[in-house]
Amino acid sequence: MAINEAKLNEFMGQFVGDIGAVMHALEGVENRLKTGALVADVGCGHGASTLIMAKAYPEARITGFDYHEPSIAHARKAAEEAGLGERVAFEVARAQDYPGKDYDFVAVFDCLHDMGDPVGAAAHVRKSLKPDGTWMIVEPFANDRLEDNLNPIGRIFYSASTFICTPASRSQEVGACLGAQAGEARIREVVTSGGFTRFRRATETPFNLVLEAKP
Ligand SMILES: C[S@@+](CC[C@H](N)C(=O)[O-])C[C@H]1O[C@@H](n2cnc3c(N)ncnc32)[C@H](O)[C@@H]1O
């Protein structure tokens, strides 16, 4: 099925919320993005989140990574079509060992829970960041207790998670299967197991938790 990239980006924009407001909620990130930050968008898929950041922050040097080669091919094409081909790069790489170091900012949009080895990914993000860098984890909104997620949005997320996210994680080494309703407490365990010492909920939207981790 052909995907209309403009529609996908529009949809992602609504899902993520106002990207400026999200970045503003993170400590010191917005300024860095405006003045040439080195950025990795890990698990970037078709590059929608990467292109949204590139449009909002023209000075940022952004690379999108995903382990799924056809997604990266799609992302490259979308960047060209959006006239952003010179400003963003896309590479096939896993979250556990993508290239580059001294990143100012690493983003994972709606994908940490899809990964087989999210702790391995967290440890690698920590290694790839500058000592004062920031890791932003955007995850589907979820409370920590199952019974607190049995609302219409949570039910949809649990269903999608059963058919999409959990099998994706199970197919990879470790197979942690966090699921799309992992919640902040479970994500905190993953992030601190990866070596991060600071973790907080920076903000939230009706659909997303925006979590901030620092080395
Ligand atoms: C739900 S999609 C999100 C894509 C994109 N971040 C977005 O918000 O549009 C999850 C993505 O995580 C990627 N992914 C899953 N496990 C991965 C891993 N171990 N390393 C890199 N990417 C991974 C998948 O290929 C998929 O593109």
From TrEMBL:
It comes from Noviherbaspirillum saxi. GO terms for molecular function: methyltransferase activity. Residues 36-147 form the Methyltransferase domain. It comes from the Bacteria. GO terms for biological process: methylation. It holds the Pfam family Methyltransf_31. This is Class I SAM-dependent methyltransferase. CDD domains: AdoMet_MTases. Keywords: Methyltransferase, Transferase.
